[in-house]
Design goal:
Radius of gyration: 23 Å
Oligomer: single chain
Strand content: under 5%
Distance between the termini: 29 Å
Structural class: mainly alpha
Length: about 270
């Protein structure tokens, strides 16, 4: 497709989006009007299923099928990144050089890492009770591991980040969500219907299938973000390709300690 054709496709899409956005804005209710009945019904449905966090009830109970689509989008994005950033034939790997990290940065990152990881796991586990959930906690837990990249170097991160296990974890999280939905069908209800006992309100076992689906999303998101960052870091740190006109290879060298060199390679 030529540049002119791509421009026209963009302009047509942008015009359609602008028209729909303007129509939606002009149709918004005025300030001070009665709240939309959907909010009242969502709160009533969450409380009836013993889910203290109404947002989690909407995501994993009332609109669980929509959340499956969102999870699948992330899964597909990570899969596409793995395929596109795989090692090419004219590339080879090189061991990163040890990084020089300021002692204060090293101490701060090492002290923060376990707390950040604990917060991520806490947010996932308490998604049906308090604000948060699998998406938010998964991102926090995945990025917490990368504090080791700042505290030490890339080789230290690789030792606690076996990619094969995280790739399995991402697939397992996606599969667990679908299997939970199919289990509801086998129980004689609709796909992803809430069929488990609701438990006691505001406890970790409350919400029926909500904590199960929330945990599946947390596993998929945490594993997917780790795999995603690993592929980009591999390109920036480990993978080399022959330099043009006798130039130096791309992507050689160290890790988080030398930020200027890292930014040039990235």
């Amino acid at each position: 497709m030529s540049a002119r054709a791509r421009l026209w496709v963009f302009l047509v899409g942008a015009a359609g989006f602008a028209a729909l956005f303007a129509a939606a804005c002009f149709d918004l209710p005025a300030f001070g009007t009665v709240p939309h009945p959907y909010g009242v019904r969502a709160v009533r449905a969450a409380l009836s299923h013993h889910t203290a966090n109404v947002i989690a009830s909407v995501n994993f109970d009332l609109r669980a099928f929509d959340t499956l689509g969102e999870e699948t989008i992330l899964f597909s994005a990570v899969l596409g990144t793995v395929v596109l950033l795989r090692q090419a034939r004219d590339e080879h790997r090189t061991d990163p050089e040890p990084a020089v990290v300021h002692p204060r940065v090293r101490r701060f990152a090492l002290l923060t890492l376990p707390f950040a990881l604990l917060v991520g796991l806490y947010v996932i586990a308490h998604g049906q009770v308090s604000p948060g959930g699998g998406f938010q906690g998964g991102v926090v837990a995945a990025t917490a591991l990368h504090l080791l990249y700042i505290a030490a170097d890339y080789r230290a991160l690789e030792r606690v980040r076996p990619l094969a296990l995280y790739e399995i974890g991402e697939a397992a999280g996606e599969a667990a969500y679908v299997i939970t939905g199919l289990a509801a069908v086998l129980a004689g209800s609709a796909f992803l219907a809430n069929v488990l006992p609701f438990g006691t309100l505001a406890t970790l076992s409350s919400g029926g299938t909500v904590p199960v689906l929330n945990a599946a999303v947390g596993l998929e998101v945490a594993s997917g973000v780790v795999v995603l960052l690993a592929r980009f870091l591999d390109q920036a740190v480990e993978i080399e390709e022959p330099g043009e006109d006798g130039g130096s290879p791309r992507g050689s060298g160290d890790s988080g300690g030398n930020g200027d060199d890292e930014r040039e390679r990235a």
